């Protein structure tokens, strides 16, 4: 205890030194949670010093019971839950005031009607006898002893305003049967009760149960729910904005850790699994299987048992077939990325044990997996599936409520151990309900909340002298000679206050948080269902409209919850319908100057968010650089999802930014005021992007000019080749030969072999500059003249080739460039006498 107190003290000291104590804007005590920490620390320090003695020491020890509150500060979910709970405190105060008023009214009526009339005799003195006859002793013939008589009243009565209020509080918790019977048996003052003598008194209880229990308690619940709904906003803009945030949170695309198979077989099976007919077939099979399961009964006939076994086997094989189709279509990773596919696999795997296991107990337990097929049927119905997904999405908040309940129980249990740990056992306080240690105190708190006889436990821990021993010494124990102790086995006179506070906080308030969360979650579904579609999103998108936007986003997300900040964002806006995108409902584009400027600011703010993310990552690496090798090793062992984009923007950030710039009417003024800093950064970033795009355009123009200069010659050569007759004849011949080869291959049903130049035709050519004119070269003969010297009647292309071969074998060949690109190169001398001409 001292070690933890010292750690908390050091933490408080460091926070005060870094932030200030109370005067600065970020001072330590400016935070309510820090105030709670400081009070707990002070109580712990006072308890450690031992300055408080006796009953005051219990106040110091109260700090131990409050330590679980420190956990709330460090858990965001708990902190949000507590803030929502604190938001309900003002209206709850009005409800409590109404409750107190109802208590007072009914308490006054009860005091006038039943005050002083609930007395009865402890033994004997039956009606019409009364107080006068209830004296002396009575012989108990069954036990053979004398029993003293006493005229007493029960623990819960209406003789004073305080006692009447406490009795009414007990009735509020629906623990009223014995009090109701006692009031119905009332006769006269100082006269013993008679069964059913005043049955008309039950009308009072009926009226109070209607007003004080059902009405006021339901108002209590309503205000708690309303406190949660206050988070949804008070104005229409707040409601629309919070509904949009809930849609973003609910429909954010999931990160796919595994890529889909790209082979043709997987594509076929994937299309089959996603087809409506396959889904309808699966739904019908599950529905029929569920009908058969509902028809099952005990002691079936052999024929019916055989029918049930046959249909179970058939539908199990259908489930196996469905899992195989998903396995081939989506791969093993698809079962990890999709929870429902993994659920189908578990159902199949569990059901398979009933067929492969020889153990009767294992097979019987495995058959229980068939019941999960009902969930498969439920998730195939859209409305039911949305409810299931809403319940699943509520689990984190339910977990926070359970943790909050545990903290509250822990604080009260710790306090009850301090107060009632040594209290003597009574009518209900005993082995099954006690506060001897923390585990037993937690169990007792749970029993109190779950309608156990809490008032009897409260009476037992309220016991006072002379019915108990205040201290273990000779003063209170006659003839005691042992060591004296400062404690005894008495209870606490304030126990009633503690128990009432426990019932109010842990039962009336915290347990009703479950109802608040459920209504808040399902209120979102009803809002989506009842929302009317508006093309302009005047009150926000409907569920269908937002899902259309999500599907558009997923087209460019590559199985991730992000898109590229440059290309992806622009492409998304050009494919998304207005008002978020630029695509009109008639298929056109709405891209005026306002839209262009808006696009620039959208990109600017996204770059600001990306920059902040990079800076936060750098700060994290700098802070934990010592452990960076460990993080890197863990990343190698457990790799994360594939990173598809270097500079990607998350779905949540992109959607919010699009709403801020494209649909500002959905943004409350408070949110707009809080965006001042980031808008200023976005303006500067927009200027930087403008300069960057200008410089990039200048560089692009320069590179374009260089590329055009390089390509202009190639384009001129291409145009010349297309206009050259020889090249045209050669191309025509090449195409004709390929067509002939294709037809031959098709007739033989073989692979088409395209015409290719043989390797023998690939030669190296060494060209030397020829400076002289054609007529000045000794022995020069034009190729045309060489062909004509053959005096052929019909000239064919092969004659020109043969003339070239003869001339090349006799001497050098002069080549002259005539196309527009290489014309300036002029003539070149080539020696071809060493060439082989095979393949020409």
Give an account of the 3D structure.
The chain has helices at residues 2-19, 32-49, 56-66, 69-73, 76-87, 89-114, 161-172, 177-184, 202-229, 236-250, 264-274, 276-294, 302-337, 339-356, 360-367, 373-380, 382-420, 438-449, 454-461, 495-509, 512-530, 543-555, 567-575, 593-623, 628-637, 651-662, 669-674, 676-723, 725-748, 783-788, 797-810; strands spanning 120-121, 137-140, 145-148, 151-152, 562-564, 648-650, 767-769, 813-816, 827-830. The mean pLDDT is 82. Strands 7-9-8 form a three-stranded antiparallel beta sheet, with no helix packed on it. Strands 1-4 form a two-stranded antiparallel ribbon. It has a two-stranded antiparallel ribbon with strand order 2-3. It contains 31 helices and nine strands. It is mainly alpha-helical and 840 residues long.
Write the layout of secondary structure elements.
Blueprint lengths: L1 H18 L12 H18 L6 H11 L2 H5 L2 H12 L1 H26 L5 E2 L15 E4 L4 E4 L2 E2 L8 H12 L4 H8 L17 H28 L6 H15 L13 H11 L1 H19 L7 H36 L1 H18 L3 H8 L5 H8 L1 H39 L17 H12 L4 H8 L33 H15 L2 H19 L12 H13 L6 E3 L2 H9 L17 H31 L4 H10 L10 E3 H12 L6 H6 L1 H48 L1 H24 L18 E3 L13 H6 L8 H14 L2 E4 L10 E4 L10
Helix pairs in contact: 1-2, 2-3, 3-17, 6-7, 6-9, 9-21, 11-13, 12-13, 12-16, 13-14, 14-15, 17-18, 17-21, 24-26, 24-28
């Amino acid at each position: 205890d001292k070690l933890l107190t010292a750690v908390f003290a050091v933490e408080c000291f460091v926070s005060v030194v870094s932030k200030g104590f109370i005067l600065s804007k970020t001072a330590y005590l400016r935070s309510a949670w820090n105030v709670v920490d400081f009070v707990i620390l002070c109580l712990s320090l006072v308890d450690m010093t031992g300055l408080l003695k006796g009953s005051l020491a219990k106040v110091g020890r109260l700090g131990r019971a409050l330590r679980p509150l420190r956990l709330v500060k460090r858990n965001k979910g708990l902190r949000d839950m507590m803030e929502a709970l604190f938001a309900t405190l003002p209206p709850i105060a009005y409800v409590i005031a109404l409750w107190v008023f109802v208590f007072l009214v009914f308490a006054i009526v009860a005091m006038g009607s039943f005050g002083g009339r609930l007395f009865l005799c402890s033994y004997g003195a039956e009606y019409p006898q009364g107080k006068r006859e209830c004296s002396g002793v009575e012989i108990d013939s069954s036990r053979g002893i004398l029993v003293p008589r006493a005229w007493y009243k029960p623990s819960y009565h209406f003789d004073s305003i305080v006692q009447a209020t406490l009795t009414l509080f007990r009735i509020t918790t629906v623990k009223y049967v014995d009090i109701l019977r006692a009031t119905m048996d009332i006769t006269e003052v100082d006269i013993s009760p008679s069964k059913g003598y005043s049955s008309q008194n039950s009308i009072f209880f009926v009226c109070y149960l209607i007003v004080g229990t059902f009405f006021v308690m339901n108002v209590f619940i309503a205000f708690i729910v309303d406190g949660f709904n206050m988070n949804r906003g008070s104005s229409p803009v707040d409601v629309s904005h919070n509904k949009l945030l809930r849609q973003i949170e609910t429909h954010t695309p999931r990160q796919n850790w595994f890529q889909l198979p790209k082979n043709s077989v997987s594509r076929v099976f994937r299309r089959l699994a996603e087809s409506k007919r396959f889904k309808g077939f699966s739904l019908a099979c599950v529905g029929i299987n569920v009908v058969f399961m509902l028809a099952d009964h005990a002691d079936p006939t052999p024929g019916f048992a055989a029918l049930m076994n046959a249909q179970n086997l058939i539908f199990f094989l259908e489930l196996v077939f469905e899992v195989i189709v998903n396995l081939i279509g989506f791969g093993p990773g698809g079962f990890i990325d999709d929870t429902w596919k993994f659920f189908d696999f578990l159902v199949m795997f569990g059901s398979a044990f009933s067929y492969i296991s020889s153990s009767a107990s294992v097979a019987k337990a495995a058959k229980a997996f068939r019941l999960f097929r009902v969930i498969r049927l439920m998730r195939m119905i859209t409305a039911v599936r949305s409810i299931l997904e809403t319940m699943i999405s509520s689990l984190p908040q339910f977990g926070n409520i359970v943790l909050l309940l545990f903290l509250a129980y822990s604080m009260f249990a710790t306090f009850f151990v301090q107060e009632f740990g040594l209290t003597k056992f009574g009518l209900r306080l005993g082995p099954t309900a006690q506060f001897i240690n923390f585990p037993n105190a937690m169990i007792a708190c749970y029993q109190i909340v779950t309608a156990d006889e809490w008032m009897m436990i409260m009476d037992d821990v309220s016991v006072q002298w002379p019915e108990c021993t205040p201290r273990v010494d000779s003063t209170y124990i006659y003839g005691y000679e042992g060591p004296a102790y400062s404690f005894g086995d008495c209870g606490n006179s304030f126990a009633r206050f503690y128990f009432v506070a426990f019932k109010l906080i842990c039962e009336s308030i915290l347990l009703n948080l479950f109802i608040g969360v459920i209504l808040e979650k399902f209120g979102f579904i009803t809002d989506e269902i009842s929302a009317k579609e508006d093309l302009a999103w005047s009150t926000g998108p409907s569920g269908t409209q937002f899902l259309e936007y999500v599907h558009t986003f997923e087209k460019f997300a590559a199985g991730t919850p992000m898109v590229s900040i440059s290309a992806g964002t622009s492409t998304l806006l050009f494919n998304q319908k207005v008002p978020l995108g630029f695509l009109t409902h008639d298929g056109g584009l709405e891209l005026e100057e306002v839209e262009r400027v808006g696009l620039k600011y959208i990109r600017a703010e996204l770059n600001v968010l990306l920059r902040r993310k990079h800076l936060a990552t750098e700060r994290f690496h700098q802070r934990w650089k010592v452990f960076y090798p460990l993080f890197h090793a863990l990343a190698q062992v457990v790799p994360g999802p594939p990173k598809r984009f270097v500079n990607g923007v998350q779905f949540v950030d992109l959607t919010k930014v699009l709403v801020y710039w494209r649909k500002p009417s959905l943004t409350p003024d408070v949110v707009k005021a809080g965006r001042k800093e980031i808008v200023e950064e976005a303006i500067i970033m927009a200027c930087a992007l403008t300069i960057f795009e200008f410089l990039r355009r200048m560089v692009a123009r320069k590179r374009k000019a260089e590329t055009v200069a390089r390509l202009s010659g190639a384009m001129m050569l291409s145009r010349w080749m297309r206009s050259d007759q020889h090249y045209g004849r050669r191309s025509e011949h090449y195409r004709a030969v390929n067509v002939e080869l294709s037809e031959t291959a098709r007739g033989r049903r073989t692979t088409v072999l395209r015409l290719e130049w043989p390797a023998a035709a690939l030669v190296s050519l060494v060209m030397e500059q020829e400076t002289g004119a054609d007529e000045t070269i000794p022995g020069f003969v034009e190729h045309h003249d060489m062909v004509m010297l053959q005096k052929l009647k019909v000239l064919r292309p092969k004659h020109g080739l043969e003339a070239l071969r003869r001339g090349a074998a006799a001497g050098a060949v002069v080549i002259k460039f005539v196309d527009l690109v290489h014309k300036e190169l002029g003539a070149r001398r080539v020696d071809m006498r060493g060439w082989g001409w095979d393949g020409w």
